[in-house]
Design a protein that fits this description.
This protein is of the alpha+beta class. Helices cover 25% and strands 25% of the residues. The strands form 3 sheets. It has a 6-stranded mixed β-sheet, with no helix packed on it. A 6-stranded mixed β-sheet has the order 5-6-9-8-10-14.
Length: 278
């Protein structure tokens, strides 16, 4: 149906998905740390304008017309301070959000992650795209449905969308409290208390939670929960791809905050293209 493929740029590897083959895109590994999106875009489309946000584990999706491109943010940040100081404080100069969407071609939108799910979404007709950072908090706040809604505002139809979820921590190793699992799970099943939600989730095909030997804990599959949210919106399984990589279990490729407790990330980005109906 679709495949995940390793590409090489400057001797280092990044991941792509055949579901998004029309769009220059990539899920980059820790090999590229600490390169930033304005450098990494050269692997996708050097001429593309770069956009990113300051991620805060919320559910806000901004459009590129509502924020400044990275090049402008950098110029404004450099006024009155050294480059070294600017590098440390730069994230403070970006708008707070956890996703970006654009309907303008040749714009690259980026998110970073280190266990949370990076999603790249594209519209096969309009060419518009979105990049989303979805941890358990964002998933509980339905950030992915929010992103879909913003694309629909610009003319997307559900059947035209393609969604690729990149490397993230897998459910089999992601231990959370029952309360966290309930908050996330209540987005896809009726909420009538912790025991009711967990019981209902366990009965689902390919359930998004698994048992954990520690009392009061379960294992949570955030990407499976997101796929259920998409399914309930009317997006079919054929429109969704999930990377077969876990950030926690593949230290040779990815940072994992849960594994390493380091504030390091890998970037994921996608470039919008011209509409196909032009």
């Amino acid at each position: 149906m679709y495949s995940w493929n390793w590409r090489t740029w400057n001797g280092r590897s990044y991941l792509t998905c055949s579901l998004l083959e029309q769009w220059p895109h990539g899920f980059f590994t820790h090999q590229f740390w600490p390169q930033s999106p304005e450098e990494l875009v050269a692997a996708l489309r050097p001429s593309a304008e770069v956009y990113r946000v300051k991620q805060v584990h919320g559910n806000t999706i901004l459009k590129t017309g509502e924020v400044m491109p990275v090049s402008v943010v950098r110029v404004e940040s450099l006024e009155g301070e050294s480059a070294a100081t600017q590098a440390e404080t730069e994230p403070q100069n970006f708008f707070e959000a956890d996703g970006l969407a654009t309907q303008n071609s040749q714009q690259a939108v980026w998110v970073c992650s280190a266990d949370c799910t990076p999603l790249l979404i594209a519209d096969s007709q309009t060419g518009q795209v979105a990049a989303v950072h979805a941890g358990w908090r964002g998933t509980a706040a339905k950030i992915v449905p929010q992103a879909i809604a913003r694309l629909q505002e610009e003319g997307s139809q559900l059947h035209q969308l393609r969604v690729a979820m990149g490397p993230a921590i897998a459910g089999e190793v992601y231990q959370v409290s029952e309360e966290v699992a309930t908050e996330v799970g209540a987005t896809v099943v009726p909420s009538e208390g912790v025991s009711s939600v967990l019981s209902t989730l366990h009965r689902l095909p390919n359930p998004p939670i698994l048992e954990d030997p520690e009392p009061g804990r379960v294992r949570l599959d955030v990407r499976r929960t997101i796929s259920l949210q998409l399914e309930q919106l009317g997006i079919t399984a054929e429109q969704v791809a999930i990377a077969p990589y876990c950030t926690y279990q593949f230290p040779e490729y990815f940072f994992s905050y849960r594994r390493d407790n380091l504030k390091k990330v890998q970037w994921s980005g996608i470039v919008s293209i011209e509409p196909t109906n032009k």
